[in-house]
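Protocol step 4 of 5: obtain the predicted structure for the target chain.
Materials: sequence only (see below). No template structures provided, no constraints applied. The aim of this step is simply to have a reference model before the mutagenesis design in step 5. Sequence pasted as it appears in the construct record:
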Amino acid sequence: MAVEATTLQRNSIHRALSRPNLLMGADRELVLITGLAAIILIFVVLTIYSALFGATLWIVIVAALRMMAKADPLMRRVYIRHMAYRPSYRATPSPWRRY
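Step 4 output (structure tokens):
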């Protein structure tokens, strides 16, 4: 009896389903919160200094967020999960470690 060659079923994973949700190259929620804070700063204080400070703050923070997203697009979620599990981390690497 001849063994029939079986082919595996191939399913393609579309790129749009696995890409992180970014805005301007950074995490979407953080960019929107930063923009909201800058706009509130500019339009509540209503001076030229607050406008310059708000625009500078926006540019600097978005640049930092882009660098963060370039390193790991899901870094915010990883950090939030890390903080949630922080109480369960042991202070020592092993229960058998000598103090």
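Step 4 remarks: The chain has four helices and two strands. The chain has a mean pLDDT of 87.
Proceed to step 5.
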